From TrEMBL:
Its main location: membrane. InterPro entries: PEX11, PEX11C_met. It comes from Perca fluviatilis (European perch). This is Peroxisomal membrane protein 11C. It is found in: Peroxisome membrane. GO terms for cellular component: peroxisomal membrane. PANTHER family: PEROXISOMAL BIOGENESIS FACTOR 11, PEROXISOMAL MEMBRANE PROTEIN 11C. The chain crosses the membrane at residues 129-155, 212-231. It holds the Pfam family PEX11. One of its GO terms (biological process) is peroxisome fission. Keywords: Membrane, Peroxisome, Transmembrane, Transmembrane helix.
């Protein structure tokens, strides 16, 4: 079997790896579908294919929402093991991480209630629960960006110190860590742009993204996640929060 195929199989055999692949295909389908559906006036066949891809994307998004019904305990276990971040060297990183864990933990029950309401399992309106979940997701992403910026600042200080000491191996390791944090920032910013899009109309650019732009932002974030996993640079959020639903 080809090494690339073996790598894909190993990725799909793990829950987090499969989720990342589904997420990438989901947003990729929304990107292509959004582009093709814009050709309604000039190409009927392309428009039809675009709508099918958008429906396929919505089904994959729903699949991920259902799978996240079982993520609460793993998130709780991670939050418990992290605690108040006593092993962190920096106080700022510690408390940002604690707040991120709180937002991530609260996100799941909000999404579960919204899903159950849409499935008519409980008699409540789902809109406010989807909104609560989106707010918590956006909060988590914003905190993640702040954390990565803080970590970058600390790594730069360490890098300068190692450059004075002439520690070559340590410098290369720090540069890899810094690249990983930059990728995390780009990924979170792409997701945050979508989170704002799903907020109520009137808040910044809420509701203004076309399907293809939502798909583009999500695809960028998903590909970065796959790159980080492949490079062994997956950060703490990979073992906690899977990015929320697409509300299209």
């Amino acid at each position: 079997m080809q090494p690339s195929v073996e790598s894909l199989v190993r990725l799909l055999e793990s829950y987090r790896g499969r989720d990342k692949v589904i997420r990438t295909v989901c947003y990729g389908s929304q990107l292509v579908g959004g582009v093709l559906s814009r050709k309604a006036e000039t190409d009927v066949s392309s428009n039809r294919l675009g709508k099918r891809l958008l429906l396929f994307s919505a089904q994959l998004s729903h699949c991920r929402t259902v799978l996240r019904l079982f993520d609460d305990l793993s998130m709780l276990a991670y939050s418990h093991s992290y605690g108040f971040g006593g092993r962190e060297e920096d106080v700022g990183v510690r408390w940002i991480s604690v707040l991120t864990n709180v937002a991530d933990q609260l996100y799941y029950p909000c999404e579960h209630i919204a899903w159950a309401a849409d499935a008519e399992l409980i008699k409540v309106k789902s809109d406010k629960w989807w909104l609560f979940g989106t707010v918590l997701w956006g909060t988590s992403l914003l905190l993640g960006i702040l954390r990565s910026l803080r970590v970058l600042l600390l790594l730069k200080k360490k890098l300068k110190r190692y450059e004075r000491d002439g520690a070559g191996h340590s410098r290369s390791q720090l540069r890899r860590q810094m690249r990983g944090e930059v990728l995390s920032i780009l990924s979170s910013m792409a997701d945050l742009s979508n989170a704002i899009h799903w907020m109520p109309p009137g808040f910044l650019w809420a509701g203004r993204f076309p399907n293809w732009l939502v798909g583009l932002m999500g695809t960028i974030s998903s590909l970065i996640g796959l790159i980080q996993m492949n490079a062994g640079h997956s950060n703490e959020t990979d073992s906690t929060l899977s990015t929320p639903h697409s509300e299209e």
